Write the structure tokens for this entry.
Amino acid sequence: MESMGKGSRRVEGWKTSMDVTWQFDYAAEIEKLKSLYSKSKRLQWDAERDIDWTREIDPSKPIVEEGRFGFDRIPFLRRLGKSTRETFTAQVAAHRLSQFLHGEQGALMVAAALVHAVPDYEGKLYAATQTMDEARHVEVFERYIRKLALVYPISPALKRLIDLTLRADHWVKIAIGMNMVVEGLALGAFHNMRRATSCELLREVIEYVLRDEARHVAFGNVYVQHALSQMHPDDREDIADFAYQVIKMMSDATGGPEAAGRPEPDPGFREALVRSSIDRGDFVRGLAEARLAGIRTDQAPGTIHSFRDLMMPALVRVGAVTERTRARFAEAGIHVYDDPHILESLEDRETGEVMPQGE
Ligand SMILES: [Fe+2]
Ligand SMILES: [Fe+2]
């Protein structure tokens, strides 16, 4: 665990050879991208002006009410008693918010990479607005987490996913990794946290962020679909392989198909257990016991399932899943969910306008 102290600067990096595309036509041809750019400019907000940060977080009140994560349904956690469960809920909330913060920093860098790499004028303008959006998202989550005075490290799986996206050799892969997979994950997690939290300030922060994220997911849809429809089939297969690779990586990290196995160890989450005085071995056995009894915390009513409801339908909708990779998914036991209705309803509602669908 790391404190938010201002002492030494913790940085970590690696080298990349990034695609840089100049665009000298200045002709905006993809109408829907142009309109997303206009919308982005119109809907800019300012975290300093629009959010009242003087509100304190009441330390006597958990930011997520007991039961909203569904932990009270797990027999092992019920046996531990209410106060341990409350501490655990608070630590898990802090751990999730930390992932929001780190994920937003990743999004900031990826959006900036898109400015360099995309070949279209209107694509560059749009990506610049997303870069600004992501800067605001880092800013608001950092400000909120500073009030909690607790930040967990990035989970290894999230870091790997963002690094893989930043290392991708084609802008369409970057847009898939970011705007469809990472932001699918974020959109689901933000919605679930907005529903779960009893903190008015956090709810407001998330509502502002969600307005932008819905647009980012729509950008992935519009632009990637357009690009894939113009690509040589061999190149499309290369992109489809990348989509398979990121989904497989996520699936493995969360415990395999349908999260039926054991998730990859996360040192931050381990620390959350220590802080809650819960033995890790007991916790793992408790989860296995709940799973055997058919209890899953991600199936609470109204919970959005990022993988099933957002990511996979988004990839199918743009054509990033081909017949060939469908067979690869089947082989890996990963179901290709293709019902886009939850994804589309989020895209519409969050912007307050009907988002462009397809090309
Ligand atoms: Fe964001
Ligand atoms: Fe975003």
In short: The pocket of fe (ii) ion (ligand 2) is lined by residues 107, 134, 183, 213, 216 (CB under 6 Å). The radius of gyration is 20 Å. The first helix runs from residue 31 to 42.
